[in-house]
TrEMBL record, chain A:
Domain of life: Bacteria
Gene Ontology CC, one term: plasma membrane
Name listed for the protein in its UniProt record: Branched-chain amino acid ABC transporter, permease protein
Organism: Pseudooceanicola batsensis (strain ATCC BAA-863 / DSM 15984 / KCTC 12145 / HTCC2597) (Oceanicola batsensis)
Keyword Cell membrane: yes
Keyword Transmembrane: yes
Pfam family, one: BPD_transp_2
One MF annotation (Gene Ontology) recorded for this entry: transmembrane transporter activity
Record keywords: Amino-acid transport, Cell membrane, Membrane, Transmembrane, Transmembrane helix, Transport
From TrEMBL, chain B:
Protein name: Branched-chain amino acid ABC transporter, permease protein
Listed GO MF terms: branched-chain amino acid transmembrane transporter activity
Transmembrane portions of the chain: 12-35, 41-60, 130-151, 158-176, 208-227, 248-276, 296-319, 331-349
CDD domains hit by this protein: TM_PBP1_LivM_like (cd06581)
GO cellular component, one term: plasma membrane
Species this protein is from: Pseudooceanicola batsensis (strain ATCC BAA-863 / DSM 15984 / KCTC 12145 / HTCC2597)
Location(s) in or outside the cell: Cell membrane
InterPro entries named in the record: ABC_transp_permease, ABC_transptr_urea_perm_UrtC, LivM-like
Entry-linked Pfam families: BPD_transp_2
Domain of life: Bacteria
Length: 297, 382
C-alpha cells in the first residue's frame, strides 16, 4: 500500500513541478503559455550542455537552468505576451507558435546546422544527463525500499512550493502580484507598476519550468519535443485546482497523481491516464472555476 | 447590415473564384500524385470551415475538433479495412482484419464475431454504407451529448477549450488501449478502396479528387447559407453577448449546441473523406497538436471568415508540402511557420480574410463596411 502511495506521490510531485510555474503564469496573469513545456525543455538542455562544457553536476545545474529559462521567459513576455494581456485564447495561439520556434531552434542548433556546424548536446537527437551515483542507488529504511532520485524530486518540489508560497504571501512583491491577479486596473491605480511586476512574475514562473526540466532530465531522455506533452497535464492540474490558488494547485496535483498511480496498478498506464482525463472533465463540468477558486467581484 | 454593394459582390466573387479553381484544378494539374495531395488539403480546408463556424461565428473554441475528425475517419476506415484484400486472406469465409489475427488468443475462431474480445463491434461495418453513415452519425451524437452538457451547465470561454482538449486526449488513449479492436498505435492501414455501385474509387484517380472537391464546395456554401439565416444571426448575437441574448428570450444553449454539433458533423465528414484519399486512419488524428494546428490554420486564414479559414488551411499545407520536398528546408519551414503564427496573432488577428477586406475597403472607398465588419469580428476575449 505504501508503495502505491509513493508512486502516486512521485507522479504528483512531477505534475506539481510543472504546474507550479503554470499556476503563476496562467493563474496570476491569465496567459495560457503553450511554450511552458519548451521552457521545461530548455531547462533540461541547460543541464545537458552545462554538464558537457562546464562539467558541473545536477545541483549546480538547477539554479543555472532557473536563470536560463527565466531569461527566455522574460524575453517572451516582453516580445509577445505583453501585447496579448486580456486576450486569453490569443495567448494560447501565439505561444503555440513560440513553442514551435523554440523546438526548432534547438533542433536546428540555432540555425548553425545549415552551415554544417554541430554543437554537441543540441540537435534533433536524444541527450542524457548524468545523475550523481548516490541518487541512483536504491536503499532501504526500515525494510521499505526508497528510490533516492524520486525522493529527491519530491523534496525539491516541496521546497519550491514553500518558496513560492513565501514569495506570494509574505513579500511585498507577492502582495502586488496578488493584487494584479484580482484586478490589474485597480492595482495600477494604487501605484503598482503592473508591467514590471508582470514581467518579473512571468520570468519566475518560467524559471520554475527550467528547474522542472533539470529534474525531468534525470529520468527521461532529453529531446526537442520532450516538453510538449507535459504542458497539457500541467494546465489540467491548474484548472482543476482553481485559477490563482496555490493550495488548489498542490491539492489537484496530489489528487490527479494518486488517481494516476492507483489506476496504473489496477489496469495499465494508458487507461490510468484516460481515467485522469475523465476526472478532469467531470470536475470542470461540475465546477468550471476549479476546486479552490477565489470569488472575484 | 450596411455593406457597400462592391464589397458584397467581392465577397461572393471570392466564393465563385474558389469553387472554379477547386473544380477546375484537374484540368491544369495532371500529376495524380499532387492531385491526391491537394485532395487531402481540401479536407483540411473543410476542417478550417468547421473551426471558423464554431470559433468565429459561435465564439466557442473547440480544441478537440480532432476527436470528431478521428471518429469519422475510424468509422469509414473500419468498413474499408474489411474490403481490403488483406482481410480476405485470413482463411475465413468472411473478411477479418489482419491485425485481429495477431492479437487473437490461441485457438480463437477466425470469425469477426469472436476472434478478439470486442471484435463483434466490427460486424455491422461489413456494409460499407454503415461505416459511411456512422462517420457522420457518431461524431454528431458525441458532439450533441458533449455540447448539451457543456452549454446547459453554462460552461464558457476557455473552459470549453480545456474540456474538449481533455476529451480528445481521453478518446485517443482509449483507442490506443483497445488494441484488439482498433490496432492501437498503428491505426488502420492497408485499406480497400471506396466502392459505390460497383465503381472503385482509387485515391489516385481524378474522380476521387472530385468527391472531395465537390464536398468542400457544398459544405462551404451550406455553412455560408447557415450563418446568414436567422439562426445564424442569433448565434452571432449570443457570441457577442450571451447574457443579453438570454434576456431577449433566446435559448442560448440551444443555438450553441446546434452549431457545435454541425461543426462536429463537418469534421466527421472531413475525417471520412480523408480516409478515402489517404487510405489510413491512426490515433495521431486525435493528437493535441493536430487539433491546435486546425485552429491555427483558421486563425491565419481569418477566424471569422468561412472561406478565409478554408483558404488558410489549404495554403499553409500546400506550402508545407512544397517546402518538405527538400529535407533541410522542411525543418526551417517549421521555424518559419512558428514565426508566422506569432506575427499573425499579434498583428493580423483577423487573418488573411481581414487583410483582403481592408484592401477591398481601400479600393472601393467603402471603409464603413470594413469598420462594421471589424466590430462584428471582434469576438469576445473570453
Amino acid at each position: 500500500m505504501s508503495e502505491i502511495l509513493f508512486i502516486g506521490l512521485s507522479l504528483s510531485s512531477i505534475l506539481l513541478l510543472i504546474a507550479l510555474g503554470l499556476s503563476i503564469t496562467y493563474g496570476a496573469m491569465g496567459v495560457i503559455n503553450m511554450a511552458h513545456g519548451e521552457l521545461v525543455m530548455i531547462g533540461a538542455y541547460t543541464a545537458v550542455i552545462s554538464g558537457i562544457y562546464l562539467n558541473i553536476n545536477l545541483f549546480l545545474a538547477l539554479p543555472l537552468a532557473f536563470l536560463v529559462s527565466a531569461a527566455v521567459g522574460l524575453a517572451l513576455e516582453k516580445l509577445v505576451i505583453r501585447r496579448l494581456y486580456g486576450r486569453i485564447i490569443d495567448t494560447l495561439l501565439a505561444t503555440w507558435g513560440v513553442a514551435i520556434v523554440l523546438q526548432q531552434l534547438i533542433r536546428l542548433e540555432f540555425g548553425l546546422s545549415f552551415f554544417g556546424i554541430h554543437i554537441e548536446g543540441l540537435g534533433p537527437g536524444l541527450q542524457n544527463m548524468n545523475v550523481p551515483s548516490f541518487l541512483t542507488q536504491p536503499f532501504e529504511i526500515g525494510g521499505i525500499p526508497i528510490q533516492p532520485y524520486r525522493s529527491f524530486i519530491i523534496l525539491v518540489t516541496v521546497l519550491l512550493t514553500l518558496l513560492t508560497w513565501f514569495l506570494m504571501y509574505r513579500t511585498s512583491m507577492g502582495t502586488q502580484v496578488r493584487a494584479i491577479m484580482r484586478n490589474p486596473q485597480i492595482a495600477a491605480a494604487c501605484g503598482i507598476d503592473v508591467k514590471r511586476v508582470s514581467a518579473f512574475t512571468f520570468a519566475y514562473g518560467s524559471g520554475l519550468a527550467g528547474i522542472a526540466g533539470v529534474l525531468l532530465a534525470g529520468f527521461k531522455t532529453v529531446m526537442p519535443d520532450m516538453g510538449a506533452s507535459t504542458v497539457v497535464d500541467g494546465f489540467l492540474v491548474v484548472v482543476v485546482g482553481g485559477v490563482g490558488s496555490l493550495l488548489g494547485t498542490v491539492l489537484a496535483s496530489a489528487l490527479l497523481g494518486q488517481i494516476n498511480g492507483i489506476f496504473a496498478i489496477l489496469t495499465n498506464d494508458i487507461l490510468a491516464r484516460a481515467v485522469v482525463f475523465g476526472v478532469v472533465i467531470a470536475i470542470i463540468l461540475w465546477r468550471p472555476r476549479g476546486l479552490f477558486a477565489f470569488k472575484s467581484r | 447590415m450596411s455593406q457597400s454593394k462592391l464589397f458584397k459582390y467581392g465577397d461572393w466573387g471570392i466564393y465563385v473564384l474558389f469553387i472554379v479553381i477547386v473544380l477546375g484544378l484537374p484540368l491544369v494539374m495532371t500529376d495524380v500524385f499532387w492531385l491526391n495531395r491537394i485532395a487531402k488539403y481540401l479536407v483540411y480546408g473543410m476542417l478550417g470551415i468547421a473551426i471558423a463556424l464554431s470559433w468565429g461565428y459561435a465564439g466557442i473554441l473547440n480544441l478537440g475538433q480532432g476527436l470528431f475528425f478521428g471518429l469519422g475517419a475510424y468509422m469509414v476506415a473500419m468498413s474499408l479495412k474489411l474490403q481490403s484484400y488483406t482481410s480476405l486472406q485470413q482463411g475465413s469465409e468472411n473478411p477479418v482484419p489482419d491485425f485481429m489475427l495477431w492479437n487473437a488468443e490461441p485457438g480463437a475462431p477466425t470469425e469477426l464475431c469472436c476472434i478478439t474480445s470486442g471484435s463483434w463491434l466490427w460486424l455491422p461495418f461489413q456494409a460499407q454504407g454503415f461505416g459511411m453513415a456512422m462517420a457522420i452519425i457518431l461524431p454528431v451524437i458525441v458532439a450533441l451529448i458533449l455540447s448539451s452538457a457543456i452549454f446547459r451547465l453554462r460552461v464558457s470561454g476557455v473552459y470549453v477549450a480545456i474540456i474538449t482538449l481533455a476529451l480528445v486526449l481521453l478518446v485517443r488513449l482509449l483507442i490506443i488501449d483497445a488494441q484488439p479492436v482498433t490496432n492501437g498505435f498503428n491505426g488502420l492501414t492497408d485499406l480497400g478502396w471506396l466502392t459505390i455501385g460497383g465503381v472503385e474509387f482509387d485515391p489516385y484517380l481524378v474522380s476521387t479528387y472530385y468527391i472531395v472537391a465537390v464536398s468542400i464546395c457544398v459544405v462551404l456554401l451550406a455553412t455560408r447559407w447557415l450563418v446568414s439565416t436567422r439562426a445564424g444571426l442569433i448565434l452571432q448575437s449570443t457570441r457577442d453577448d450571451p447574457n443579453r441574448s438570454r434576456y431577449l428570450g433566446y435559448d442560448v444553449a440551444a443555438y450553441q449546441v446546434f452549431f457545435f454539433t454541425v461543426s462536429a458533423g463537418i469534421a466527421g465528414f472531413a475525417g471520412m473523406l480523408y480516409v478515402i484519399a489517404a487510405e489510413f486512419a491512426s490515433p495521431s488524428f486525435l493528437d493535441i497538436s493536430f487539433s491546435i494546428s486546425m485552429v491555427v490554420w483558421a486563425a491565419v486564414g481569418g477566424r471569422s471568415s468561412l472561406i478565409g479559414a478554408a483558404i488558410g488551411a489549404i495554403l499553409i499545407n500546400t506550402i508545407e508540402a512544397t517546402a518538405s520536398e527538400t529535407e533541410m528546408f522542411q525543418e526551417a519551414w517549421k521555424l518559419i511557420i512558428g514565426v508566422i503564427f506569432v506575427l499573425v496573432v499579434l498583428y493580423m488577428p483577423r487573418g488573411l480574410a481581414g487583410l483582403a477586406e481592408d484592401l477591398a475597403g481601400l479600393f472601393g472607398k467603402s471603409r464603413d463596411s470594413g469598420r462594421t465588419r471589424r466590430a462584428q469580428s471582434s469576438a469576445p476575449a473570453e
